[in-house]
Amino acid sequence: MGESSEEYDESALRDSVFRLLGRREQSYQELRRKLIQKRWPNDMVDAVLKDFKEKGWQSDERFAEIFIREKVSQKQGRLKILAQATQQKGLSVELVERLLEEMEVDWFSLCAELKERRFGEEPPADQKQWLKQVRFLQQRGFNSEQIFACVNRPES
Tens digits of per-residue pLDDT, 56-89? Predict the structure, then answer.
C-alpha cells in the first residue's frame, strides 16, 4: 500500500475537485458547499481549495465573468444577477458590482428588448396589463427607472 489514508483522502478530494471544475467553472463557495455535503473534512476542503485558488485552477473572478455574461444573455436584470451571484453562488458584492460596471451593459435597452419579446411593441391596453408587464420586469431584476422607461402607461 505505502500510502497513508490521509494522503489517499487528499488525493481523492483533489480528484473530486478536478472533476467538478472539469464540468464547468464554479465559485469557491459552491465547491466548498458541495464537498462538505459529501462529508469531506472542513479543514481538508479549505486547504485543497486554497491550493487550487493559488494555482489559478479555481477563480471566483473567472467564474463571475462567465456567470454574469450568461445571465445578461438570458436578459436578466442587474438586481437579479447581483442577488443570485451573492446569495446562491457565494460571490462578494464588490466583485460582482465591479464586473457589472466593467461590462457596460445597457440595462435600459435590455429591459426594452425583453419587454418587446414578451409583450410586443404595443403599449399595455389597460392598467391590469401595465401591472403585469411591470411585475414581470421586476421579477427579472430590472429597477423601476429601467422599467418605467420601457413600459408606457396605458391611455385612460
Answer: 999 999 999 999 999 999 999 999 999 999 999 9
Distance of alpha carbon 144 from alpha carbon 148, whole angstroms: 6
- Mean pLDDT, residues 7-28: 90
Neighbours of 92 (CB within 10 A): 15
Q: Are 31 and 65 in contact (CB under 8 A)?
A: no
Number of C-beta neighbours around residue 62 at 10 A? 12
Cell of 115: 419587454
How far apart are the C-alpha atoms of 11 and 8, rounded to whole Å? 5
3.30.479.30, 1.20.58.760, 1.10.10.60, 1.10.10.10: CATH of 107-150:
1.10.10.10
Amino acid at 42: N
Please state the pTM of the whole predicted model: 0.85
